Amino acid sequence: MAETASRAAIRAQGRKAIAAFGAPRPGTRHPLVATAMVLPLAALLVVVFGGWEAVVTQASSVGVMLGR
To answer: For residues 57 and 49, what is the distance between their CA atoms, to the nearest angstrom?
Structure first.
């Protein structure tokens, strides 16, 4: 039982140290990491479904609608 109290104190000190250095909250990631995770899938979808032509077509339609 005596060891339990010391372990709790050590864990509490560890949490304070992590908080002092500004560790990110759980469930969040840096935007560049998220981008690096998404880009390979996005490139695969563009190649598989011919997405580039769809993007160009949509952009052209929006340009016409805006009068450009």
So the answer is: 14
Q: What is the pLDDT of residues 41-53, one digit of tens each?
A: 888 888 888 777 8
Q: How many residues does the chain have?
A: 68
Q: From CA 48, how far away is CA 51, in angstroms rounded?
A: 8
CA gap 55, 62 in Å, rounded: 11
* Tokens found for residue 55: 């993007």
- Tell me if the pTM is above 0.90: no
Q: In terms of C-beta density within 10 A (0-12 exposed, 13-18 middle, 19 or more buried), how is residue 51 classed?
A: middle
